[in-house]
Design brief:
Layout lengths: L6 H10 L12 E2 L2 H11 L6 E5 L5 H9 L2 E5 L6 H7 L6 E4 L8 H9 L4 E6 L5 H10 L4 E9 H7 L10 H9 E9 L4 E2 L6 E8 L10 H13 L5 H6 L8 H10 L13 H16 L2
Parallel strand pairs: 2-3, 2-5, 3-4, 5-6
Antiparallel strand pairs: 1-8, 6-9, 7-9
Helix pairs in contact: 6-8, 9-12, 11-12
């Protein structure tokens, strides 16, 4: 089968099947072999690896994955693409196609069946409208993950690796950095896709931590504290947290926890590091338990 990274081959297969792009699925197919090679290099796929691909589209990146991995499972939500994928991937025996919504797939079950529960590699050109739910879903399900190498909207990649005190820093930065080490691989202009997206894209690799870099007694509470701290960015940390119904402490009790950390009463959430958030959530948890 002709390589789909070449634009005329992509056009030919789309015309053959009279494919219509579905806006609701955020479909933009990659047509640049240089970028495809960069993704593969960043993902570090070997013949030992089982790879989960999210949103294979017409199989452009999938062809590369099948060439390099031991086995690939590709999850595609658009049933209109399945006949195309059956043709573009017909030369490969190491591919399983699933016509499902990735947010509803039991990835742990796939990892257990296909990879004996060992850490898997995830590679994807993600639809931008659901990038964050997909990535957070992967992390929060505690599926064994080696790495996630994905194409995302440029500003989302910047948020994932942002540092405290910067405008991009927020709940997504902290969540990603709790589970993984983010590394931007390449920026990709709109002309590398068909159709062209309105925004720039970035390939980012998230290398999973063997264990979280901070010790939070209650992981769920840690993320409640983080989310509440960024819900109203202009508010002080104490005010933001005391407005959060899920955190069962008064403003004075929260202010006491903040003070115990040696922080100013007027400190804002956007200046705290991940380890400070872990420390704060542990103090809050201790306070809730002692009630």
């Amino acid at each position: 089968m002709a390589a789909l990274g070449v634009p005329q081959n992509t056009i030919a297969i789309l015309q053959k099947y009279q494919f219509r792009f579905q806006k609701r699925f955020g479909q933009n197919f990659l047509i640049d072999t240089h970028v495809l090679n960069k993704i593969m290099e960043a993902a570090g796929i070997t013949k030992e690896d089982f790879v989960l691909e999210i949103g294979p589209g017409i199989g452009t990146l999938t062809q590369y994955l099948c060439e390099n991995a031991r086995e690939v499972a590709a999850v595609e939500i658009d049933s209109g693409l399945i006949p195309i994928l059956n043709e573009t991937l017909k030369d490969y025996e190491n591919i399983t196609l699933l016509n499902q919504d990735i947010l509803k797939v039991d990835i742990g079950k796939i990892a257990a069946e296909k990879n004996g529960g060992r850490p898997i590699k995830v590679v994807a050109n993600l639809p931008y409208y659901i990038t964050t739910p997909i990535i957070m879903g992967l992390f929060e399900s505690h599926v064994p993950l080696d790495s996630i190498t994905v194409m995302v909207q440029k500003e989302v990649a910047e948020r994932m690796q942002a540092s405290p005190g910067t405008k991009d820093y927020g709940a997504l930065s902290l969540a990603v950095q709790y589970y993984a080490k983010p590394q931007i691989v390449a920026n990709v202009p709109p002309n590398c896709f068909m159709p062209r997206p309105k925004v720039g894209s970035t390939v980012i690799r998230l290398t999973g931590h063997k264990k979280p870099p901070v010790a939070a007694v209650d992981e769920k509470l840690l993320f409640q504290v983080i989310r509440a701290s960024f819900r109203q960015r202009r508010k002080t940390l104490s005010n933001g947290l005391s407005n959060a119904s899920e955190i069962m402490l008064s403003r004075d009790e929260i202010a006491g926890c903040v003070e115990k950390m040696g922080l100013s009463a007027t400190v804002r959430g956007e200046t705290l590091t991940l380890s400070q958030f872990a420390e704060l959530s542990n103090l809050i948890q201790g306070k809730i338990k002692s009630k």
